[in-house]
């Protein structure tokens, strides 16, 4: 175990950067196989056209658009949750925030990449900038996602500066790399003041951007006139789903790295209990939105809406719809109501289930509407081919690879924030707590009581 | 300025598909082959939709030829991120094949499924094609253009001869081919034209009128007119 090796306090946090074992190369090799599958699939698609997928008329959007919405949703793990935890001064955030922020940055690349994979003419991608039409929700997506990516990279980088400086002073290798990235950090009082201020500003800035991102992703659907897409609650519904799947992804990542890098001392059951409770709340909120959305459609009962509605409930999409209800609501609720014992196992089960469920949710939003056109065309059934499966597998593998490589260059838990927690945090919390409490003597309190 | 539109009399339509074939020949619409057809990738700018009698599967109640409806407020043009589809001043919704990035957003937004995608490269330039219509490459969206090239040609001819475009000089291939004369094409903004007169008929209706898309393809209901407007 890395934690037992010499190297002082927090050695476990340096270990993955200092040493690279055989396990790492094994994992990378496996990931490369999946990425290769995705790469070959894309090459075939580029040569032959989108005809190699299962898409057709009328189901002109399928896996790729589902993946796009799903991965962009995962990105809300990070920055948004980390920003909220920072701003609310939740002390338990310290070992969590970095992992969350990394997810956001890495997964945004994958999510935006899905659109490129989906384009019939990727060679003309730059037309979006040359001839961009701001009336199209796709342009809103492009704007919002690039703003989010920029803000998230800054928000990931800022709190990393002191850690990079620690690495610069400690490690023998990659001296130049860390020296440049550390921006001459010495830890002086002025530097710390500026850094904390910058982090606070970014934390506030990033929240509205994150909300805007998944709202405009939903607008791609809700701005059309299509049945079960044209819905006013899609914006908040998508944002809730995004945060929901984001937390699940964060939990899974935390559990994997906890095990792989021996971080049990940092990521304790209490962290998973808090995140599990957050996941439980999001599950209930997601259920509420889903219920409201489908009840409204059902009660109105217009024929076009009902065609899509029944296709989901009892028609060809029933396994996906009820699978989604099971994995997004039933399983998480059963796992998360009581977290007293086997916390981590339960939270992991719930999170994996939610990741499957939220992917199904995106699928069940995208495809059934398209496969039930308003005019009498007959229903279009959609089956993905090996190409689409390859892109899905490749995308997940590429995300995992990016994340893994990050952990080889930078600490996956913020070292200085942990130290700050030990040194300053304890005192600060005590002082803060005292300000919450009524001050003054017992007698004075009794006095106020009588006046009432 | 002219506002081009079409009236389709469902009472006269026999479902013979002459309009479909005329359109394919006129506009170089590719035959996608049996394999692609089974996968649901037929391209047919003009498509004859059929509605079955409820409770009697297989019995066809109604034929409905459906070109692009050239909406006056088209849901497809709004969502195009690159202005590859737009409504021109004369009301024709056009496609710019050389600019389309193939995102298929317009296909998802069209309530009439009038847009088609080139899932593969279905054809190359070859003799026998209409030289006035460009052959679409793979990866772009295409649809009915109201035979826009015919308008350009007719207008050029009129200009050379130093006169105005005469009514009836520009009509679409489907209208020309219909043996039952169910399809009438012309200028909706000219109150005297056949198409404008028919569009005012009490039998006239528009597809999914409630969506507010204001289609310029107007249908005449079946079973009332016996072929008269």
Please, could you describe this protein's structure?
The complex is a heterodimer of chains A (452) and B (229). By secondary structure, chain A is mainly α. Chain A has one domain (10-421): Up-down Bundle (Formate dehydrogenase/DMSO reductase fold). In chain A, 73% of the residues lie in helices and 0% in strands. Chain A contains 18 helices and no strands. Chain A has helices at 11-18, 22-48, 63-74, 78-87, 97-118, 127-130, 137-157, 161-170, 175-182, 189-222, 234-260, 269-300, 303-313, 318-336, 343-371, 386-409, 415-436, 442-451. In chain A, helix 3 (63-74) runs antiparallel to helix 5 and helix 5 runs antiparallel to helix 16. The radius of gyration of chain A is 24 Å and the shape is globular. By secondary structure, chain B is an alpha+beta fold. Chain B has one domain (4-220): 2-Layer Sandwich (Alpha-Beta Plaits), CATH 3.30.70.20. Helix content of chain B is 21%, strand content 17%. Chain B has helices at residues 18-26, 34-38, 75-79, 105-109, 148-160, 173-177, 194-199; strands spanning 4-9, 47-52, 60-66, 85-87, 93-95, 116-117, 141-142, 183-187, 204-205, 217-220. In chain B, the strands form 4 sheets. A 4-stranded mixed β-sheet of chain B has the order 8-1-10-9. The longest helix of chain B has 13 residues, at 148-160. The mean pLDDT of chain B is 91.
